[in-house]
Specification:
This protein is an all-beta fold. About 0% of the residues lie in helices and about 50% in strands. Strands 2, 4, 5, 6, 9, 10 and 11 form a seven-stranded mixed β-sheet that branches. A four-stranded antiparallel β-sheet has the order 1-3-8-7, with no helix packed on it. A hairpin with a 6-residue loop joins strand 4 and strand 5.
């Protein structure tokens, strides 16, 4: 399995931007599909964005399309989530997960139980 560590969360005003990072350990990181999920208090862990092993296939939840951008740098074992035009409803703990599942393209919308490796999460708070 791969170990993941998220960073980059914080407090930001509505309309602002943040970039989250997901750093991985393990030489096989480039083989994994990586996804960002988020979980607000009392709610389930919801899909946000995912990227395939090579970075040429991505997918997004409808709620973040056009505002968030996922990318990866396999040489640095890191996946990024650039978040712009943040809204109060984006407030949550953001987790990155890794999976050997196949990223099928723009309609790929996995459930959290499909992912077996998780980081500890990073808090994002958007003030209105």
């Amino acid at each position: 399995q791969v170990q993941l560590v998220e960073s980059g969360g914080g407090l930001v005003q509505a309309g602002g931007s943040l970039r989250l990072s997901c750093a991985a350990s393990g030489r096989t990181f480039s083989r994994y599909t990586v996804a960002w999920f988020r979980q607000a208090p009392g709610k389930e862990r919801d899909f946000v964005a995912a990227i395939n092993w090579s970075g040429d296939r991505t997918s997004y939840a409808d709620s973040v399309k056009g505002r968030f951008f996922i990318s990866r740098d396999n040489a640095k074992n890191t996946v990024y989530l650039q978040m712009s035009s943040l809204k109060s409803e984006d407030t949550a703990v953001y987790y990155c997960g890794a999976s050997v599942s196949y990223h099928s393209g723009s309609n790929y919308n996995p459930k959290s139980y499909e992912y077996t490796s998780w980081g500890q999460g990073t808090q994002v708070t958007v003030s209105s």
